[in-house]
Amino acid sequence: MSTYVQPVNEVKDPIKKEDSNLNKPQTPQIVGGLVVSAILLVYLLFSQEAVQPLLLVIGILLGYTLFHARFGFTSAFRRLASVGNGQALRAHMLMLAVAVTLFAPILAFGLSFFGGEVSGYVSPVGISLLVGAFLFGIGMQLGGGCASGTLYAVGGGRSVMFVTLLFFIVGSTVGAYHLPFWTEELPSFEPVSLATSTGLGYGGAWAVSILLFGVIAWITLVIERRRKAPKMAPLPSTSGWKRIFRGSWPLFAAAIVLAVLNALTLMTRGTPWGVTSAFALWGSKVAQFFGVDVASWGYWQGNVEALNASIFTDSTTVLNLGVILGAFLASAAGGLFKFSKLNLKNVAAAIIGGLLMGYGARLAFGCNIGAYFGGIASFSLHGYIWGILALGGTFVALYLRPLFGLSVPKSKDSFC
């Protein structure tokens, strides 16, 4: 970060001081992003149901928030595993606390903007979940980002993440093909909801969830003290209303915004925010184009019509496109959109990481968004187990990252 020196006789201007650390907005990119967003919004308004354009707007807000706060799931797990810093994980706990507070009445009373059914993500606990979440944990540390992280990094211009996304789609498609084996041939328990499977109800499940989040946050503080963890370095920012558009957002502010947007997604389409089911759809459509009998796969039984419909009828696809556009607009507003360089090692890591994440997400009934965020917010036991296994995969990946020239934070480092 640059150092600001106040000239003699100059009136102190804290906003100017902070803005001196920021890049200039990239006006052509901003205009281009707004035009593309407007065209897509108009297309959805006239060609799809009313839910789709609203989801596009929510997706754009999600991407904007993720990028501006650099809100990561991959980095949060890595910081805790490598140096014991739990700042980002505590932001997760706040996000989840706000989410369960909003999800509880929505799920309990079936609150919906369009009058449809509302349901959370409550999935089985079995070998499929354990293996899938563990593989995803390794993959996100090699691929450079989780599911949401891949999308917003693509929007921000990180070239290697285009490779990660491509192989994320491949892995998810292969995982969809193999899923019946993992779910039907291997041991599995029925889905467990803290609200409906335990007799606690949504009020009791909310109280238990809040208690668990508090305990997890406390544990991260204990780990930080014992390991003398370094703090996260501040990112360049500004103050006042300008901070909405430029500079970094506080993690805790972003956590609240993401929880609210996830609740709005639930009320809009009837299910929480998800990412990777669209990847399986995109890959399956490509495979079908080349003559593969995708419709015969067990994964698509009961939903074959999705294979023959436009991708714009898929709500998760629309959300994903919105996240990419929102991240692009955020990066351009901060003057940060720039394609990065590729090398053999980071491309190899992206390929392996993308494949592991795609395959793992299908086995684990979702990714960091659908299984971890959406699952826990829906009071599902599988969301907590996903987080534990993904953290386990992160520990393994710390030993693999150096093989691909990827850094691992050290206890003496200050990091962003």
TrEMBL record:
Lineage summary: Bacteria, Bacillati, Bacillota, Bacilli, Bacillales
Family classification: Belongs to the TsuA/YedE (TC 9.B.102) family.
Protein name: Membrane protein
Keywords: Cell inner membrane, Cell membrane, Membrane, Transmembrane, Transmembrane helix, Transport
Location in or out of the cell: Cell inner membrane
Transmembrane helix recorded as keyword: yes
One GO CC term on file: plasma membrane
Membrane-spanning intervals of the chain: 30-48, 54-73, 94-115, 160-179, 199-223, 244-264, 318-337, 349-373, 379-400
Membrane topology: Multi-pass membrane protein
Keyword set includes Disulfide bond: no
InterPro entries: Sulf_transp_TsuA/YedE
Main location: membrane
